[in-house]
Fold these 3 entries.
Entry 1:
Amino acid sequence: MKHNMFYGASSLIFQRAVELRNRMTAAEELLWKQIHINEWKQKFRRQHPIANYVVDFYCHAKKLVIELDGSIHELEDVKKYDEYREAHLKELGLTVLRFTNEQVFKQNKLVLETIANALNQLTNPPIGVRGMEQLFVIKIGGNIIDDEVKLTSFLQSFAKIEGKKILVHGGGKLATKVAEAMGIQQQMIDGRRITDAETLKVVTMVYAGYVNKNIVAMLQANDCAAIGITGADGNLIQAHQRNNKEVDYGFVGDVDIVNTKLLYGLLNDNFSVIVAPITHNKQGQLLNTNADTIAQEIAKAMSSLFEVHLIYSFEKAGVLSDVANEDSVIKEINSSNYSQLKKQNKIFQGMIPKLDNACAALQSGVKRVVIGNAEKLSELINGSSGTNIIHE
């Protein structure tokens, strides 16, 4: 499978790239004019999002990154960050060329010759660390979490999946029950929990504590080496507090960055990773984050290293054209007919966020997205059940 050229970059990184394109340095402007249309017949992109970074120039056909450094890069702290960044880019299978602004101006011919030599040598550009091994990112939610028998059956099926796998879970209704027992009033808007300071304590205890560790223990009983973590552990998922002018969601987070290096290391050590939907903002604040979104962001981020299959599993048979009829499953959806189905009001309103997440994932390099019944996990994996969302 062709590597996605953005390597799981988040929306925040794309926004940063746009800002940088609008204020390129003089050295960047000069080199861009020389490589934008070139004698090598290679396509370059400027201020291009890759993983957690914006690189100055990128040739996807050759997996070549070109970075230009101003005087600030002579500072010791910046040098250390540049080394870390370059090492990560190389882990993604990329070649990195680095020049100073002064070299672009005063040794321009040598700079272009160096680029030409690199392009000639990269006839077979390197791929990611482990090639395109399959990875299943599975989200479990809905009433399945609350039903011990169904959850047990689902986890037995999950344990049997061969190869690399990540499970992202919600919290079911337990958090609401615990909060009510503690006298903490709960408020939901459009199915999303308003998370005040006391509610944050409850969801952290329930999601990151009981639910996560119960799932891990049940998987161990099925000979599945599982490790349970939250977005705060190992700096797995950094987020920012949602800023919504119409609704104050409280301590709810929107994802900024996924630590692919941590996930890759755990998967490579043959752990199945079980992720609870709690993130952090790198300033000591925990945040309650939608599990569907976490699954999507993890799938996008890992698509630079694996052929990722994202599966949303819950109590429904799939995307239904008639919410009251479980047999009305729409077998396949692509971006074109999805727009039409929405305009025709043929998709249940509560399913739209999942489908929006699915389409965003596909556009960022995820191989396939499936939505369907958690009790038919093996069929969802082989494509014989649920709704398959495909990229045109």
Entry 2:
Amino acid sequence: MLIVIRRIVDWHRFHIAGSPKDEKAFTVLTCWGSEHRFCDQIGRREFLRVGALGLTGLSLADILRLRAEAKTPSAMTKKPRSVIMVCLAGGPSHLDMYDLKPDAPSEYRGEFKPIHSNVPGFDLCEHLPLQATIADKLALVRTVQFVEPMQHELEEVYTGYPKSAKRPALGSIISRFRSGGDVPSYVSLEYSNGLTSYEHPQYAGMSHAPLHVSGGEGVRNLGIQHGMNLNRLGDRRSLLETFDSVRRNVDARREVQDVDPYTARALDIITSSKARDAFDLTKESDETLKHYGKRDDKFTYVGKEPDSIWDSQKFLLARRLVEAGVPIVTLRMGLWDHHGNVIQQVGGISIWHSLRSTLPLLDRSIHALVTDLHERGLENEVLVLVWGEFGRTPKISLAGRDHWPDASFALFAGAVNTGQVIGETDVRGERPTTRAVSAQNVIGTIYHTLGIDYHQQINNFAGRPMQLLDDGKPISELVD
């Protein structure tokens, strides 16, 4: 795998309300991987991008400095809470996962059968049997509606608004109001070439941009200097030795030259035992690693054979991060854009052929994460949310389904009222018949759980006060 360390200029200007515009350079570690495409033919190149420790500066230091300049308040509660938000990008099929319609006409209902769970009325797909055993620990909203045009824009999932609104990512809002202490306040496990538009902090301030850390090898290279061979990081001893070496280099640097307090603080976070331990998956037992699955698990996207990576251990890393105190962790999993014409163009079979390989992986990951949080007594401290940018058309087209924003789902676990299904769609799964909710209601539920009032305002780039959400009323069944 090619590793390139480069200095890049972030052409997005740093904005802190009331402060002048500025431009900063970041040192990043980029590891290029395989490429996937959705139906829009935009390449989804997987790669690893992490903030790299260099003697000439550290991006995290800039983040800390800007945060101090903004005098951002902290709204930490007596009992801190965290969020893990899992985005199923591409448009997961609600009709084939969590809202099956076995009595619908054949051109709507699909090939899968629903199964009962341990909660009456909480039926789900036959390929999600593990979640059926823990439905009492889950809460399903079947009536999420989106306003974004039917394109692959993830802004509504990450901000509550369409892309054109240019609103701050929910992780940046959470970072602004909740400090991570000795660990970063906002970690993204996104495979992304730099800062994505949907995880951009916008006018919340660049000090609240996410720390991008991919799973697997990227974790092991957090803070590692240029020239380190990835093969040397394959065992626990070399990993710990590398971190110890970085720590010694930091201490030596402080002895020979002045280090401003923000850089010093950034170095402390990167090299602290708490941060190091949070990212160190080798501390987990073989039993736990097996419970979550492998980094190189594979599923079938639109072809015939398994050809795409499902990094199961990203869920484990997310659990370790929130357990260490990171307020918000986001991750993007799988490929869910199952158009019939695209499937046929590449010689594939059907949406159900793909989902037969993908759903068991999702099932295991959700089951592992939720049961692990409960076993560790974190179920009241951590909120888990799983959703995508829209559902898929109820009417089948060429053994696939197209984009459908009028009906989708949101699956919750953890620090909300669980063991329930909220809302119903019509007999064909086209639109809600009861309890329709918006993306802003879903994100408003997250804010409410963390003690953040969605009525609070932040000045935008023009100095105009902007409420966090226009309609952020939380979903009452989950929080009352």
Entry 3:
Amino acid sequence: MSRVVSEPELVEPVGDFRGHQQAATADIDEELARIVPGTPCGEYLRRFWHPVFMTGELDDLPKAIKILGEELVLFRYGNAGKIGLVHKYCPHRRASLEYGRCEDRGIRCCYHGWLFAPDGEILETPGESADAKPAQEVRDRTRLGAYPVIEFRGLIFAYLGPIESMPKFPIFDTYELPDITMRPYKAPYKCNWIQVLDAIMDPVHTTFLHSQNSHPQFSEGMSELGELKFYERHENHFLGSSTRRVGDNAWVRVNELILPNFTQAGSAFAADGTEQRYFGRSAFTRWVVPVDDENSIAYAWANFGERCDPPEYNTREGCELIEQGEILDRTAEEKQRYPADSEAVEGMGPITTHKGEHLMPTDRGISLYRRRVRRCIRDLADGKPPPQPHCGGTSSIRTYGQDTVLRVPVKSPENDRACLMDVGAKTVDLQFGFEDSDNTDRDNAIIAGLKQLEADAKS
């Protein structure tokens, strides 16, 4: 017996559809997005130290890497395993030094045996007579491009700018926290560096991307929208505070950005707003480093200890969860069902069309820092060097990424937003008041001030 299948009822679309009117692609922000050699932003970024590799991944063989649009080779030399960073291609016949041989004095090209010192000096041209004039001339006038490097706590940092402008290697107070374990990690992103960096000054995304969209990737408390406030200090240091109501508690979480690309935040898993916490410190100490215009990589330490994240997350997978809320290696379906930072920022495309954005008041932190980066780029073009991280009168650079949870019960529901904003502002202001103290005195003073703030709020 045949079965009759009825045709579905035809329903004409109704609505104010504007796809055709908006089909033209908006422009990207060329000034901020382009970072290859010779670009204004590229020259700005080259005035700072950047992490470029993890020490544990560099063995006795050279490693080819790309940073700030340059093809480079990282290698160890000498008995002590010192590190050199040079341009990838030999200046003789352009053979790749990725296939070179690491020796006591430097790296030797596989093709014709030219030997280069870690600063790029040509030490030997063995295919030529040692006293031949052409060989002497090329050794005198030619150098392999090379950059200074510093190995520090499992990360390798490089300075890719003019050597006469090389700044002091920055030491942040986070390095000096007692009883802290700092585990180096990396996280690649298939998109422009600005897309990745924006998230640190966007506290609102935590509520939606990491909480309400699929499931809580950090804690239930982060699903609450906070009261926001943004700060700019020392021309290059930006903070975004979010103060949430969690039961009888006020949870103040502070993210920070020190230009051009240093970031810290509160903890990922140590705080959920339900237990008191006084000046807990950052889950990570992190840089967003451009690889080229369309790729970037986060190099960081995940921080573990009483004031940071719990030691059970001190694994590779734990670092990935701290970085973005989910592990990196997931199926396409898992990424759709449970998107994290990489899906949000890579989904914008290799370089987002910035000029098609519609920034809102909650994006004020992004507006502030982008405007300052733009000013620094233009100042450098006019001969003014960009400001380095502010050290003040202390041995290390003061940072503010933190979580504080104070017991502040609701007194007046209609005035609770004002109460939360007041607690958040006073919590951040306390950090600003002790910048010239040493680390221990500063921490003790801030914690004592927070406890007094809590006591005052109860009275």
